[in-house]
Write a structure and sequence with these properties.
single chain, mainly beta, 7-stranded mixed beta sheet
Length: 389
């Protein structure tokens, strides 16, 4: 499928029934679920151990083997007899490497459920923790060589236009990287792949959130945002305040990059946050505002951090020099990979897929691929105010 970008007035093509929208950054893909509604997602995933019936020689998913990727994590969807599910499978069963991954997941429908926990048995090394009446989850997977891990959440059709957010932690970013014996060295995840029922494969960034909802991609309208900052009274920390709004949606979250490396350092639900810098010097601060429809916009500002503004410093009323740098969310062309001949697992019995590497740029199996963000306006107001004690 050819990658297209939305103009300001463009509207996404209506997707077929059962389509799932997956967004990352300013890109969105419409994905066809696996399955035909005749089996449950548990039957599709087919989790086995030596103690299950039927038994397996290793611990892991036996039903998704043709979708699994050696040292790769797969995200996909399944149209089952009890609803539409989101599934994830880490690594390839009977492969030699282990690893660990942490996913923090927000916005799950309260009516849904985790149909598969791999591994969820008593004494398992994995952790499945649920919060906020089941709408949030924090999962730590840890697997050894020859095994794999994963899970399936059933009921994403109940998102009703809202987004589920997956905050990934691969390798060093996972919570158990330092403590798991099958982590570090060559025991690591090398890629994250979105897989469609029609054979499409989209490589995802392993460093950025992914958002999921039942239905189509957004219409391309983006939020507007401004950022202001001040030194907190009594010195040291700085307070940053973002005023963000969207014409057709609501703002749900903010991601902050405090050191200008392009990676998320902090995620907040509020547009006001207090931050202490660790070192002096010029710092580029960027905040990205997320709307409920999946669209985003970013605002950046250059801050001169002096000694009085560093964590642990003595209080004073020094005001930073502020240089406004408005930025809109870019629309990069994502890495796309096609795996020929990948079929629905319900009808495929002899297929195996390793990490896609052909770099062909094709991505069959996805619906209309659209850019989430066509920025209408990004207004930046940088007004560093002098606080009085």
């Amino acid at each position: 499928m050819v990658l297209t970008s939305l103009s300001v007035a463009a509207v996404a093509t209506a997707p077929p029934d059962g389509t799932v929208a997956v967004a990352q950054g300013d890109q969105c893909w419409e994905v066809s679920p696996h399955g035909d509604g005749s089996s449950t997602v548990s039957e599709f995933y087919d989790y086995r151990t030596p103690n299950t019936t039927p038994p397996g020689d290793e611990w892991g998913s036996y039903g998704t083997q043709e979708l699994q990727t050696n040292q790769g994590s797969v995200l996909g969807f399944y149209d089952g007899s009890q609803g539409t599910s989101m599934f994830m499978v880490h690594d390839k069963i009977r492969a030699e490497h282990g690893g660990t991954i942490t996913f923090d997941i927000y916005g799950l429908p309260q009516s849904g459920e985790w149909a598969v926990e791999d591994d969820g048995y008593n004494g398992s090394e994995d952790n499945f923790d649920y919060f906020a009446n089941g709408t949030e989850a924090s999962i730590d997977w840890k697997w050894s060589g020859e095994r794999n891990d994963g899970a399936a959440f059933r009921g994403i059709e109940a998102t009703n236009g809202s987004w589920i957010t997956i905050d990934p932690g691969f390798n060093e970013a996972s919570d158990k990287w330092e403590s798991w014996s099958w982590a570090q060295g060559e025991n690591r995840t090398e890629g994250w792949y979105l897989r469609s029922a029609d054979g499409g494969v989209q490589e995802l960034s392993m460093n950025n959130d992914v958002r999921v909802r039942a239905g189509s991609c957004p219409d391309g309208v983006s939020p507007m945002a401004t950022m202001d900052e001040r030194i907190v009274e009594n010195g040291g920390a700085m307070e940053f305040q973002v005023d963000a709004s969207h014409a057709n949606s609501s703002i749900t979250a903010y991601e902050w990059d405090w050191n200008g490396d392009g990676q998320e350092d902090e995620r907040t639900m509020s547009g006001t946050v207090v931050h202490e810098f660790e070192q002096t010097g010029l710092r580029s601060v960027t905040v990205t505002a997320f709307a409920e429809d999946g669209s985003t916009t970013s605002v950046s500002e250059l801050i001169v951090v002096n000694e009085s503004m560093v964590a642990g410093s003595s209080p004073n009323t020094a005001t930073p020099t502020s240089t406004p740098t408005p930025t809109s969310t870019p629309t990069p062309t994502p890495t796309q990979t096609t795996v020929a001949g990948t079929e629905d697992p319900a009808s495929t019995t002899d297929a195996s897929t390793d990490t896609p590497t052909d770099g062909s740029g094709g991505s069959p199996g996805f619906g209309a691929v659209v850019g989430v963000v066509a920025v209408l306006a990004v207004a930046l107001v940088a007004a560093a105010r002098r606080s009085t004690r």
